[in-house]
Design goal:
The chain starts with 99 loop residues before the first helix and ends with a strand. It is mainly β. It is elongated. Strand 22 and strand 23 form a beta hairpin. The chain is built from three helices and 25 strands.
Length: 401
């Protein structure tokens, strides 16, 4: 039969010295229960404070339940844990999944690409409803039905490109081909307000002003074999604004492409760009812009506005008539300028060279002066008028009658 506490009636166990409910000392058989002293330095618990836990488990507390205050409550002794329970094994740290965020980011990109493709397809279908492929049943099987291709699709594309001003290869089906050259002639309708533009890689250019409203272009390819000359394509663009001819670079350097062009005399503007070759312009009343790298340039009886720039070569100007309708400027980086001026011309003349001499006919009554670098001369012919400007970086200038 188990014993019970005399104070609160709680059940007692063998070897128990204090009641676990009220803390009252329990008398051992054969005498009083020994009083256990607190270790030195330990704090004494007041009756109002919480009693020290008597549970053998570390950190556990066994507070008194329904404890009635008494005159004397002995301090609870600090029990030593005699048979500690085995501690639970420590959990291994949770491994971080380093690749999870990379996978999530990749999934977002894939999803975004799918959405973008779907949106592009929907937009394409909305803009090209006639190009949607339909399916028809043939012998119980489903086969795509593709719209038929128009027989003149190539011509339609060419016409569209021509209308947009895109340069296209000139048709050479009617060209005259020999062992040494290929000659082709083309005719274009031109208005007086139109422009003519020519870009040359390697070849000579001759432009002559004439009456009428047509441009007659003679293209001559020199050197190489007929196959190599065929590879040196000439591109043309004809619109209401003007005509443009472009020489495509040839695969063989032995081929040169030259032009002989007859233009309406009163055409608004001519633009010439050449890498290598001689350029001759005569009998033209409109504006001329020439940008040349290497070769000789000649202007004869050109009365309109002129701006000519040559890097290496010589420039010659002939004024067979005294009248001019625009200012004219000629410049050469390395080479000479020679101008022959007709009697009765009216102009304000200026010439300068940085490294070279200037020779002026005495009839012009203009004095050449030595500058800090090179020479310069300025004067007036007749009553004066549109400017005539001659500039040379390294070379000579000669003005004569």
């Amino acid at each position: 039969m188990s014993e019970r506490c005399n104070n609160c009636g709680a059940e007692l166990f063998a070897g128990q010295q204090f009641c676990r409910r009220c803390g009252t000392p329990v008398r051992a058989e054969g005498g009083e229960a020994p009083t256990q002293l607190l270790p030195e330095g330990a704090q004494q618990t007041s009756p109002k404070s919480t009693a020290t836990g008597t549970s053998p488990f570390s950190g556990a507390r066994t507070d008194a339940v329904l404890q009635q205050p008494t005159a004397y409550t002995p301090p609870l002794a600090a029990f030593q844990q005699t048979s500690p329970l085995p501690s639970a094994p420590a959990r291994a740290p949770r491994r971080r999944r380093r690749g999870a965020w990379l996978f999530a980011l990749f999934a977002v990109f894939v999803l975004g690409g799918v959405v973008a493709c779907a949106a592009a397809y929907v937009l394409w279908r909305a803009r090209h409803p006639s190009m949607i492929v339909k399916r028809v049943s043939v012998g119980g099987m489903s086969a795509p039905q593709v719209p038929p291709v128009p027989p003149n699709l190539g011509d339609q594309i060419k016409d569209a490109l021509k209308g947009a001003g895109v340069p296209l290869p000139v048709d050479e089906s009617g060209a005259s081909v020999t062992g040494v050259e290929t000659v082709l002639t083309q005719t274009y309708d031109m208005g007086e307000d139109a422009t003519f533009s020519l870009q040359v890689v390697n070849g000579n250019v001759t432009i002559t002003g004439a009456d009428g409203e047509q441009a007659v272009v003679k293209i001559t390819k020199h050197g190489g074999s007929p196959q190599e000359r065929s590879g040196a394509r000439v591109l043309a663009s004809k619109t209401d604004e003007g005509l443009t001819l472009i020489t495509a670079p040839a695969q063989s350097g032995a081929v040169s492409v030259s032009y002989e062009v007859q233009l309406p005399r009163g055409l608004r503007q001519i633009e010439i760009s050449a890498d290598k070759g001689d350029v001759h312009v005569s009998g033209f009343d409109g504006e001329v812009v020439a940008d040349l790298k290497m070769g000789d340039v000649e202007f004869r009886d050109v009365s309109g506005k002129v701006k000519s720039r040559l890097i290496k070569g010589n420039t010659r100007i002939f004024y067979e008539k005294p009248e001019r309708e625009g200012a004219q400027e000629f410049s050469v980086v390395k080479g000479n300028i020679e101008a022959t001026i007709a009697d009765g011309a009216n102009a304000d003349v200026k010439a300068e060279t940085l490294d070279g001499d200037i020779d002026v006919d005495e009839a012009f009554q203009m004095k050449v002066e030595k500058a800090p670098a090179g020479h310069t001369v300025a004067g007036r012919l007749g009553d004066g008028g549109e400017h005539l400007m001659f500039k040379v970086t390294k070379g000579d200038i000669k003005l004569k009658k």
